[in-house]
Each structure stands twice: as C-alpha cells, then as structure tokens.
Amino acid sequence: MSNSFPVLCIVILVMDTIRRDLEGRVPWTLLYVNNVKLPFTTQEELQRQPVSVFLYEYMLGKSKEAEIKRINKELANIRSKFKGDKALDGYSKKKYVCKLLFIFLLGHDIDFGHMEAVNLLSSNKYTEKQIGYLFISVLVNSNSDLIRLINNAIKNDLSSRNPTFMNLALHCIANVGSREMAEAFAAEVPRILVAGDTMDSVKQSAALCLLRLNRTSPDLIPMGEWTSRVVHLLNDQHLGVVTAATSLIITLAQKNPDDFKTSVSLAVARLSRIVTSASTDLQDYTYYFVAAPWLSVKLLRLLQCYPPPEDAAIRGRLTECLETILNKAQEPPKSKKVQHSNAKNAVLFEAISLIIHHDSEPTLLVRACNQLGQFLQHRETNLRYLALESMCMLASSEFSHEAVKTHIETVINALKTERDVSVRQRAVDLLYAMCDRSNAKQIVAEMLSYLETADYSIREEIVLKVAILAEKYAVDYTWYVDTILNLIRIAGDYVSEEVWYRVIQIVINRDDVQGYAAKTVFEALQAPACHENLVKVGGYILGEFGNLIAGDPRSSPLIQFNLLHSKFHLCSVPTRALLLSAYVKFINLFPEVKGTIQEVLRADSQLRNADVELQQRAVEYLRLSCIASTDILATVLEEMPPFPERESSILAKLKKKKGSGTVSDMEDSRKERSTNVNGSNDHIVANTNVKVTTSPSSDLLGLGHTQAAALNSASPPVTSNAASLLVDVFTESLPVVPPTSIIEENFSRFVCKNNGVLYENQLLQIGLKSEFRQNLVIGLSGVFPGVSVQSCFYVTAASIVSLMAHSQLNIHTTPADPVVDGGAQLQQVFNIECLLDFVEAPVLSVHFRYGGSMQNISIRLPITLNKFFQPTEMTSQEFFQRWKQLGAPQQEVQKIFKAKHSMDTEVTKAKIIGFGTALLDGVDPNPSNFVGAGVIHTKTIQVGCLLRLEPNTQAQASCSMYRLTLRTSRDTVSQRLCDLLSDQF
Amino acid sequence: MMRFLLLFSRQGKLRLQKWFLPLPEREKKKIIRDMVAMVLARKPRTCNFLHWRDLKIVYKRYASLYFCCGLEEQDNELLALEVLHRYVELLDKYFGNVCELDIIFNFEKAYFILDEFLMGGEIQETSKLSISKSIEASDMLQEVRGSVQAPYQSYQSQAASKKAIT
User: Fold this and answer.
1) Containing domain of residue B59, as a range?
2) What is the pLDDT of residue A28?
3) What whole-number distance in Å separates Cα of residue A350 and Cα of residue A357?
C-alpha cells in the first residue's frame, strides 16, 4: 500500500510531465512530499499559493538537518521582514503569518509573529482576518499579554453585524477560551444568542461558545432571563440551532437542574417528532437514512440529566419514543453502508443508556438487554464492544440482572475467541459485573483459565477481580483457598501484596478452613518451582497451622520444615524474614524440631547475615528459643488473633486501579465481612512483643487503605452526567453525594501548630497555613500528584474547596482557579472571623473529578478556639492579680491527666506558645510550672485567659502527671480550652 | 464533549491537531505521542474504540490517514465515528477526492472546515449542505475582496493521480 501509492503516482506524473513537456507549453515543477511527487502545472500557479512556495522549497530538503536548516533560514527571513523598516502590506503579512503557522504545525517552536497576527484581525479583508484568527486559536495560549488586543478585535467583529465576522470572533473565543476572554464576553455572548435578529448560524456559534466558556469559567456566566429563552431554542425551526442549543442546555442543566426543568417536556416532544418522522422529512439533517442522529443523541443525553418525567403524558410519550427506537433496531437496514448502521445504533445505545438511567421500566430494561444480547454476536466488532460495555451497566439493575445472566455463555465465548484485546477486556468487566452466588464458580474458573493467556497489561486487574469474586461468593472456603493458590500459580507476578495478605486474613479468621489451607499449601509447595508469593503464604500458614497436618507422616514437622527451608535461599529478604518468623513458630508448635531449627538459626549465614533485619531476627529468635521456658514460648508465640473487620484492601486496590464507576457500581450491594491486613511482614513478631525491628506502626499500611477506601466510597454511584472536566467553584447546587465520613485524624496535631500537611492520600495532599491577624487567615494548598505507579490513572482534577457554613464563624473565601491539572497546586484562602466561642470545628469539603467520577473528601478543619488568641505579656504581679479576679468557681476549670509524651520542657514551652498564649517566664514561684496568658478575640466579646500547667515530676517516669488550670472570664471558654490543651501533652 | 481531534499519517506524522480545551504544550505532545503509538499498533479489523486514562479514544483509518479523537465518559462512540466520517465527507466535497496532500497544502482550509463543523468539542452543524454553503460563502468573500489567493482547484487536475481518502 505504502509503496504502490507513490510508485503509481510517479509513473502517472512522469507520463503527465513528459506529455506536457512535449507539448512544450509551460515549465513544470515537481513537488516532493515525503516520497510523493506532485506537479504543479505552472510555476506561476505554484507561486500564487503563498504557503506552497515555501512548502515546495521545504519539501526539497532531503534530510532532517536540511529541513531544520531550511526552516531556520525561513524563520530568519520572516523575522527580518517583520522587523524591517518597510511596512508590510496585508497580503505579505498574511503570507508570513501563514508560513509561521505551517512551521509550527510541522512541530517547530514559534516565538514571534503574534503581534502581526493580531494586526491581521483588524484587517477588513476576510482572508487576512481569517488567517489571523487561525494563528491565534492555534498558537496563543490563554495567558498571553496580547489578550487585551485580541479582545478588542473580537469586540469589533462581534458588533459588526456581519455574520461571517461574528462567527470568526465567536470561534476565536471558543478556541482560546481564557478567563480574560470569559470576563470580557460572558455578558455579550448570551445576549447574541437570544437576540431576535441573530442569524441562525451565529446563534449556533454563540450557543457553543457559551458552552465552552461555561466549562472553563462557570462562575463568570451570569444566569438570568436569557436561560428561559435558551430552553425555547429547543423549539427552533432550524435543526442546527436546536442541536447546538441542546449541547448548551445539557451542560447548564447539570449544574442547575431546577432552572432547566422545562427542557424535559420540550426535549421529549422534539424527540418524538424526530423519531416518528419519515427519513426524508428532515432533508439534509437525515444522515444515511437516519433522522437527525446527532440531535436525537443529544436529546436523549439531556433527558439523562433528569429522573423519569413525573407527568404521565410526557412519560408515556417518552416510553413510546424509546419503544420506537427499539423497534427500529429490528427492522431491516435501509442501507448496507456502515454509516447507516452506526448512526442508527448510536441512537439505540443512547436510548438504552437512558433506559438504564431511569431504571424504572422493567419491560424496557429487558428489551434493552435482549437487544444488546443480539449485538453480542454481531459481526461488527464495534457493536460487540459496545454491547459488552452497556451490559455492564444493565447488570447492576435489579430488573435486568437476571436477563443479563442468560448471556453468560456468549460472554465466556467472547473471552475465548475474541481477537481484539480491548473487547476481551470488556468481556472480563461484564463477567465481573454479572457474577453472583449462582454463577461465581463458573465465572471464576473461566477468568482463571483466561488469565493463562491474557494480555500482560490487564493481568493484574484480572487477578484482583478473581480474588474479589472468590472471596465475595465463597460459600465453601476450601474453594476460596484453592482459587487463590491457583491464582498465585498462574500469575504469581501479578498477585499484589493485598491479595496474599487477604487470603491469610481469611484463613486466620475462619477455623473451618485452617486445616485444609495448611494441607493445600503444603501440597502446592512441593512443586519444584513455585512462586515466591506462594512461599510467603505457605510460610505464614504452616507457621500458624502446621500442627493441624502434622499427624500425617507425609507431612511431619520435619518434612514441613525441610520443605520450607528448601525454598529459603531462593527468596528475597522480606520473604526470608517471614520464613524466620515461621521457624520460630515451629519451635513452639513442634518441640521435636527445635534442635534442627536452632541449628539453622545458628548458622553463620543467619547470625552474620549482611542484612540487619535477618540477622536481628535470627539472633533474637535463637536467644528466645534457648532461654524461654515452654510456657513463655507458648504465650509469646501464640496463634495470631483474628484480624479486625475492615474494608477489603483488595477492593480498595481495584477501585484505585479503575478509578471510575464500573467497579464502584457493583459494590453497593456488597456486605463484606472484611478485615484488613497489616502491611508488614511482622505480624508474628508484633505478637511476640519481641522488639525486632524499627518497623513503623503496624497499622500504617492499613490506615492508608482506609483512606483510599473512604475517598472512593465517597464517589457518587453513577455520575455519568455529572459535570465533566470543569466544575464550578462554590456552587451550592452541585450534585454531589454527601461524604460518608469526616476525616479528623490530623485534627489534634494542629491545635498547637499552624502549618503542616492536613491530609494526604494517593490523589492529593492538603497543606494548611494559618495566621491570626484580627481575623484568622488560613491558606490551604492542595497538591494533586495525580500519577500513580503502574496504572494509567489520572487526575484531571477540577477541584472545589469549600467550607460548610458555621454558626459561630464568619467565613469569607477568596475564589481560586477551579481547574487543576494532575501534579498542580491549588491555593485557597479563607478569612475566618469568630463570632462567639465554639466547640465544633468547621468542615472542609474538597470535590474533584478523578477518573470519571466526582470525589468528595470532608476534613475537619483544625480551626479551634485557641486560634483566635492574641498573646498578652504581663508581670508576675499583674498575673496573680487577674488570677484572683477570675476566682469564681465556674470560671476555673482544672484537669489532672497522665502525660502521653515524655516531659520535655522545651517541647512543652513550644506547645504553649503554639497554643496562642504568651509564655510568661518567672511568674510562677515554682520554676517547673508553666503559665500563659492571652486574649481570645471574637466579634462580640473578648475573653481574657490565664493558664497554668504543673507537671508532676515526682511521679514515676512511666506515668508522669500534669495538672492544668484555666481561668477565663467565660466558663464555656475555660472548658473548651482545657479540653483542647490537655490533649496535647 | 470531544477533547481533541488528531489526524496523522501511517508514518506517524501529525497532519492536523485540534484541542477543545486548553492544555500545556508538554501535555499535548505527550497525548500525540501516546495516540500515535497506540493507534498505529492496532491490528486490522479490531474495534475502533480504546480506553486511555479517563477518555474514550475513537479512531478510524481513511487510506493513509488516521483520524483519532478523545471523548469524555458519557459521549457516544458510534456517533463520534460518524463525526469523523462527516468531516471526511466535508473535506472530500470541498477538495474533491481529498487526499493527505490536500490537508498538508491547505491546512488552513482543513481547519476552517473543522471550525464550521465542530466548536468547543461539540457538533455545531450537521448538515453537509449548510457547511459547504458557508465555506463557499467565505471563499466567495475573498474573491470579491480581490485576494490573489488561488482557489484550490489547481489541484483538481491531478485528482486522477491522487489516491483519495474516501
């Protein structure tokens, strides 16, 4: 193909030129484009095309270096022309700007010519203006200094009343769409859109231009009386106008559903007219015998912004439309062309989406399912792909779940025979979605066998899915254990830590499966080559439950130990560490192998291992086994207690991988008995109370998962129609689901400090900086790292940070740029004024779009009463004078509490200063006591506070005590401050 | 909403790029690289849809050119295929048996036609008739105003020797 084209071309060209040459009329030129030649009939004709002359020369360049040389020469030439004394006429200016554009599109950087392009905008020659606008829409980025000049030119064109010029200007606004432009034209564009005398084509441009501005700067678009007139554009005569207006209304309706409610009945009416029209009625809006497919799809999409219509008549009419669309799918095609079938099915799929969205008409749902079932076996790959995708959605509806299940054989077949990996991927998704107790065994078996040949890129995901399904639908836990071990055997490299942690958790928590698990891992370990993950699982399980199979002479303690130890030298350090822990557990379980194991631990390769962790374990375990009595050993090396129930870490991982709705939809019904596994290999060690490592708190990893889970579970179920990339800032009506929980974990850390990281997870990090200047000013900065290891997920974060209203606090926010790209930073400043003392801290909610769905995070913002302190310096005398004045019993609060941290004078001082009061030195007669004073500023009153902290150093170091006394002029303040501060030591 | 539209050749040379939302230059380059690599690696007779990050990618090959666009989650893939097809039809109608060379030599026309058809990532006008009318009108405008620019018809004599896209 690639060869035949130029060859054929050249032959024809050569013949052509020879003939012309013989005729002897005109000179000819050959153009080289890559390796294709194209003749111009005359030199003159060639030169009339401003770019072509250059193209011609450019194409003659044979190598990359020659090309760059040629281009640099040309750039220098253009630069000199632009800088030259002689003013260029419009034509040459256009020519050079056009050349620059061409060079840019070839992939070279252009850093000049913008000014000339802007000049072209004010030309009254259409082509010059047009090239100017093209250059600007391709090359001017949104924060250029030229925006003001460009805006002026646009303003002129918008008021020119020449529809062609107006269209050019509107296109330019839509193409650049910066904030400055939005500011300049946000009022003008809606006016043009609804003005009675605007031409249809301009209306179309204005509608889409407004849509574009609304996406990037929604806060700037004034809502008003024009909105109702926009809705009525749905009735317009001109179908092009209706199409453009529908796109606009969809976007606006997602933000303000109530304002555009009336569009539902109009959309249904319009749709019904299109659906019932004969294919010739709509003239040029009929596309390959399908009546207005684009408009139909848009209308169906608009209806998906709303619940099913309440009015029975409208509802009936809509049902009729949907039935007609479903009926049409059964009719023989009016054309054999793929365009016909694509357009027709596009409407059909959109109708099915609407049916699924409404999820209220069982008959329609079942019909939709049957239709998709037909597509599953269609010869068009595209349709099979889409059918699998849509069916995933149907599977989650209770009405159609059973109907979807009937197609299981077809889907399994697709998994086996489909040649296209992306189709197979959809088949896996659908199997996952349609799985329930009745077919779990079959589906898991099929997925396992597919895993052996699956594409490497999707293996990890399949592994997670198999692990989840096996756990969720396990009636018989021996099946579960078999499945996971199979999983490790088939795709050990793709079995992430979460998966094997999980199987261990489950085995530990369920007595009935422990013996079977021990027997199975023992058998699996006998394979000559087994995956390291299997060794880990095997080591752990035999270490805990090896005794359950020790009665069998084929798996006697010694055989078990030798089997494990035969793998030891092949394993990585963490696995070896785990095996050492298993060995020490063996010493407890089987006193008869104690000698053998001690021998192993005593070997130089263990005791003098270069790895500190291994060496330490070997030394300590050996020592423990030598000195401890059997009773102590039995206590220390006791069986692990059941794990606490938490959300499955695997599920969190899958959600993290997918990021979007497909998984989370299915989780709603899930009532998981779930526990989480600690992240380290130190379970055994942790239990033995032998301090072996400086390992982080064993809960750390688990905590991370909970955060991720909290984040993900907060995402609304199907935000298919939720605002897409760009979301409004601070809109109250944004369709977000209230978060399930408010995160407070770092709250107390901020009582005595003002800066730091407030919250962090895989997606974002929120930092806090606060400062008291009459009002409290806090700045928040969110960083969206957005990139995760090895999975293609992506935070296109438009984010919203808002503070919920608070009764005692007056909160002012400064709007921030709402669009944040992955990796970028968003800053948000709040000004907070305290009206009256308070206990409840405000909640910060962060919404952003991540992987297709809206995410909410709510965090208790550490705005505590003490943030409004102003320190007061005073002498000893003053202090005690006031102290006595505040002597009323309700004004004093005293608390005696145990120290949580060791007593360090400097740290304590820093905390008191951080708390906001002044630290008064030399006031208290006892130098080891701390006293502080300050005034809390609220809008209504000012509350003076005195505090005194008395450490009791006489008490034992292990339980040193403090006595904290607070005296303020207001009893509630005393109580609150005492609570806050006593938590800090 | 369509996020971007790219046209590239089988050799991976970019012929046209249109971004419907502003992106930093680096990001654009990365997307182009990813798209070209992904789409060119696809085997024949596989489906025209892909998932990439949180976007749906729809592509179709016309002769030596790949048309490739990125859609958001809720967009209709099949219809996007027809958007690509309609664009090819429009180019074809304007250039007469359009080929890759037309798009190279008259890139500005290719952009103008696209602007008439799509705006802000949404369909502006679906009628072939209306679009060609407005393109013709603007071509007329430049002739009337006395521009020296030659009409594209100069290429049409070579139509026979060109391999058309459609």
Assistant:
1) 2-126
2) 31
3) 10
φ/ψ of residue A471, rounded to 5:
-75, -40
Annotated binding-site residues of A read 81, 91, 95-99
* Residue A248 and residue A207 in contact, taking contact as beta carbons nearer than 8 Å: yes
What six digits make up the tokens of A558? 């010694």
Number of structural domains found in chain B: 1
C-beta of residue A800 within 8 angstroms of C-beta of residue A846: yes
Residue B132 sits at the chain A interface (C-beta within 8 Å): no
Q: What is the pLDDT of residue A697?
A: 32
Domain membership of residue B99 (yes or no) is yes
H or E stretch covering A898: strand A892-898
Q: What gap in Å lies between CA B144 and CA B138, rounded to an integer? A: 10
Got the DSSP string for A453-471?
T--HHHHHHHHHHHHHHHH
How many beta-carbon contacts under 8 Å exist across A and B?
A: 234
Residue pLDDT, tens place only, A810-823: 777 665 555 555 55
- For residue A798, what pLDDT band results from cuts at 50, 70 and 90? very low
pLDDT band at residue A43 using 50, 70 and 90 as cut-offs = very low
Dihedral angle sign, alpha carbons of residues A490, A492, A493, A498? positive
Residues 6+ apart with CB under 8 A from A386: A345, A349, A375, B49, B77, B78
- Phi, psi angles (nearest 5°) of residue A86: -70, 130
Main-chain dihedrals φ then ψ at residue A771, nearest 5 degrees: -150, 140
Q: What is the mean pLDDT of chain A?
A: 77
B140, part of any domain: no
Q: Is the pLDDT of residue A290 over 50?
A: yes
What is the band of A342 on the pLDDT scale with cuts at 50, 70, 90?
very high
Residue B163 lies in a domain: no
* Residue keyed to tokens 């293609």: A792
Take residue A346 and report the two structure tokens written for it: 């596009």
Q: How far is CA A561 from CA A308, A539, A543, A547, A556, in A?
A: 66, 9, 9, 12, 9
Does residue B149 lie in a domain region?
A: no
Percentage of residues of chain A with pLDDT beyond 90: 18
The pTM of this model reads 0.65
Written as six digits, the tokens of A539 are: 């080591």
Handedness of CA A140, A146, A148, A151 (dihedral sign): negative
- Point out which residues pair with B69 in neighbouring strands: B5, B58
In this prediction, the answer to ipTM > 0.95 reads: no
Range in A217-231, A683-697, B114-128 the model is least confident about = A683-697
The Cα of A973 is separated from the nearest Cα of chain B by a number of Å equal to 50
Distant-in-sequence, close-in-space partners of A851: CB < 8 Å, separation ≥ 6: A658, A659, A660, A793, A794, A795, B54
Chain A contact set for B54 (CB, 8 A): 659-660, 793-794, 796, 851-852
**Tens of pLDDT along A566-579?**
988 889 999 999 99
Q: How far apart are alpha carbons A393 and A376 in whole angstroms?
A: 15
Mean of pLDDT values over A309-316: 92
Whether B105 has its CB under 8 Å from any CB of chain A: the answer is yes
Residues of chain B with C-beta less than 8 angstroms from the C-beta of A33: 101, 104
Residue A483 DSSP code: H
The CATH number of the domain holding residue B33 is 3.30.450.60
**Distance from C-alpha of A249 to C-alpha of A261, rounded to nearest angstrom:** 10
